[in-house]
Amino acid sequence: MNRASYLKKLRGKLQRLPAHEVDAALAYYEEYFDEAGEENEQQVIQQLGSPSHVASQIMADSALKDLEATSTSTKKNVTAIWLIILAILSAPLSLPLLAVAIALIFSFGAVIFSFIIAIIAIVLSIFFGGIVALISGFFILTQHWPTALLFMGVGFIVTGLGILLFPIVARFIKKIVVVCVEALGKLFHKIMKKRKEGY
Fold first, then answer.
1. Tens digits of residue pLDDT in 107-123
2. Per residue, what are the HEC states of the chain?
């Protein structure tokens, strides 16, 4: 493999990134080859590792930098998670290490997803419980007005509590997603470190 084919393969592996990031990464590696000189081309290729390995590092680092640099939306956080997962899965790993990485990603994802769904379910049940109490109060208003007022009062309080919890829970979920991205980034760097030590 020569410099041109190496950079072409690297560009192909980076297709999921925005065009300006791909261009910046390729410019960096072109400069790296230029500084080493034509006679050291094979040595540079050996030192860098395969295009898949370099691409996986670029994708994961890009996702983490993007997360730290901007005030991210949940959509960007999810994109960062997917980029890091893709980087881990596209990295040329040994079969046992790849199996461990996949198992860790899926178990970690399942736990976090279940936790988020449970939180959302609790908030929604509080909100809808308040609405049910409020409606029940209206229905028994003609039969026993003190009980109806109690139900309506509890309904208003619980519904209000549910409404107040929505932004808090949204912020909390966003924070969980950010922590997940950072944890996946650390996992990626650990896997890459173990891979380097293995060679």
1. 877 888 888 899 999 99
2. CCHHHHHHHHHHHCCCCCHHHHHHHHHHHHHHHHHHCHHHHHHHHHHHCCHHHHHHHHHHHHHHHHHHHCCCCHHHHHHHHHHHHHHHHHCCCCHHHHHHHHHHHHHHHHHHHHHHHHHHHHHHHHHHHHHHHHHHHHHCCCCCHHHHHHHHHHHHHHHHHHHHHHHHHHHHHHHHHHHHHHHHHHHHHHHHHHHHHHC
CA 121 – CA 170 distance, rounded (Å): 13
pLDDT digits (tens, 9 = 90+) for 123-181: 999 999 999 988 988 888 888 888 888 988 999 999 999 899 889 988 888 888 777 77
| Model confidence band, residue 97 (pLDDT cutoffs 50, 70, 90) | low
The residue count of the chain comes to 199
**pTM of full prediction above 0.70:** no
Give CA–CA dist 127/166, Å, rounded.
9
**Cα-based distances in Å from 177 to 84, 88, 108, 156, 185:** 13, 18, 12, 32, 12
Beta-carbon contacts of 162 under 8 Å, excluding residues fewer than 6 positions away, are 123, 124, 126, 127, 128, 129, 130
Q: How is the chain split into domains, by residue range?
A: 92-198
